[in-house]
Structure formats: C-alpha cells, structure tokens
Design goal:
This protein has 256 residues and is an alpha/beta fold. The protein has a single domain, classed as Divalent-metal-dependent TIM barrel enzymes (TIM Barrel, Alpha-Beta Barrel). Helices cover 39% and strands 14% of the residues. It has nine helices and eight strands.
Length: 256
C-alpha cells in the first residue's frame, strides 16, 4: 500500500501553528508529513505532535551557495549543516533529509563540481555512521523552475549516489521535475528503483494537483509499488482546490 506524505508547508496555511496544520492533515486520513524546514528543532517537534509522523526534512536549498556541495570549498560547511539538521530531525523522530547540489559554480567544469558533490556526500555519510538517517539527493528541472541548478539528470543522480559507496545516500525522485526533463519514467524506475529513497509528485504542467496533468500517476506509482519500493510518496504541489478536498482527492486518485 502506498505511503503518502503531504508537504506540510503547502497545506492549511491559514492555521497559526505547525501542530494545527499537522492535525488537519491527519484528519484527512494521512499518517505522515514532510517539510521544507530543518533549522529549528522545536518547529519539527511541533509538527510531529500533530498526530502524524514527520518523515523528511530539507537539509539545504539549491540557492544556499554557502553550503552547496558542488563547490569544493564548501565541503566542511555542508557536512556541518548535515550534522546539525540530522540532529534536529532525529529529535523529532524523522529519519530522512533532502539534499541539493546547489547552483552551478562559475569557472568550474561540470566534472569538477560533480566530483565535489560525490566527495561531500561521502564525507557526510561518514558522519551518519551508526545513525538511522538517510540523505536523498534531488535532481531538479532546469527548464521551468531551477535555471542554473547543477543536477538535472535522473541517471546522473543515480550514478553519483552509487559513486559515494554509501547506503546512507539515495535519490529523491521527483516525478514533476523529471517529467519536465525528459520523462521515460517507467523504464527508469524498473532499472533504478533500489537507489530511490523518497519520491515527490505534482501535476505537469503547473505544479498543482497531480491528477491535473500529463502524467498517469496511478500507472507509474502502481509500477513502483510492484517493483518493491516501500518508501514515501510526497505531495509537493500547490493546491488549487480547498486543501482538505485536494488531499483526499489526490489520495483517491493515486490508488485508483
């Protein structure tokens, strides 16, 4: 059975507390959430007190140049960020974190930046030894939302993860981003699903409800489940419908 987790940052924004948002999501029939947050452990713990499990946070955003692992100068800062946010997440019972490569660094070749990402992730993985925590590396689309971002290839994200040599490093496979960057979802999943630690979904185009777009989510998610994927399917979209209706209809659509 699919494990679905709404991104709490995008739903029930009229509520004044994270706990209230989480409670609203729980009332819609969900048992898990994720968040873009990570810096404040109190916020994370408040989310986890709303009747849902917090399953993923964001370790660094693509625009945070000072900790971008694609810059060789940032390795120590990136690893320090991972250590800090991992501790915050674990305090809230969360065991997954999303990492981005950062924007392309002028004057450095793709190969040099890619090597820096591999080395930084491997160094971070060493710090996670003995901890129940996984980092999920996210490729993003550079055609619509993230111009200048380093990693836009699903295949290269898998290759980078494998090159780290660590089971602590997986891929965040975002169907929205990877549909924009070329599609061919089913074949990619069949050969690479074991390297995927987390998924995101949204409608293409527009990044709204997943049912409103060109991707057949019931088909690809059923295939992913058939292959043996047991991770979470995140709802990272901007709802056009009222929040409760949007979440309930999306859940029903995925399982149709």
């Amino acid at each position: 059975m699919l494990k679905i987790c709404p991104l709490i940052d995008l739903f029930f924004t009229q509520e004044k507390s994270w706990k209230a948002r989480a409670e609203q999501i729980a009332a819609c029939g969900f048992s898990a959430i994720e968040t873009w947050k990570g810096a404040n452990s109190d916020e994370l713990k408040e989310m986890a007190c709303g009747g849902v499990e917090l399953v993923s946070i964001v370790m660094n955003f693509a625009t945070e140049a000072e900790v971008a692992p694609c810059n060789p100068k940032n390795r120590a800062a990136f690893v320090e960020r991972v250590e800090k946010y991992t501790a915050n997440a674990l305090e809230a019972g969360c065991h997954r974190g999303i990492v981005t490569t950062g924007q392309q660094v002028g004057g450095l070749s793709y190969a040099a930046q890619r090597a820096a990402v591999v080395e930084s992730l491997a160094a971070a993985a060493e710090k996670l030894a003995g901890l129940d925590f996984t980092l999920n590396l996210e490729p993003l689309n550079t055609e619509v939302n993230h111009s200048g971002y380093l990693l836009s290839s699903a295949m290269d994200s898998v290759a980078i993860v494998r090159e780290t040599g660590s089971a602590k490093i997986k891929v965040l496979y975002d169907f929205y981003h990877m549909t924009i960057m070329g599609g061919n979802q089913t074949e990619f999943l069949r050969y690479n699903w074991k390297d995927i630690g987390h998924c995101h979904t949204a409608g293409v185009p527009g990044r709204h409800e997943p049912a409103n777009g060109e991707l057949n989510y019931p088909f690809v998610l059923a295939e992913l489940e058939r292959l043996g994927y047991t991770g979470y399917i995140g709802l990272e979209y901007m709802p056009l419908l009222p929040d409760a209706r949007s979440l309930q209809e999306t859940k029903a659509y995925f399982c149709s």
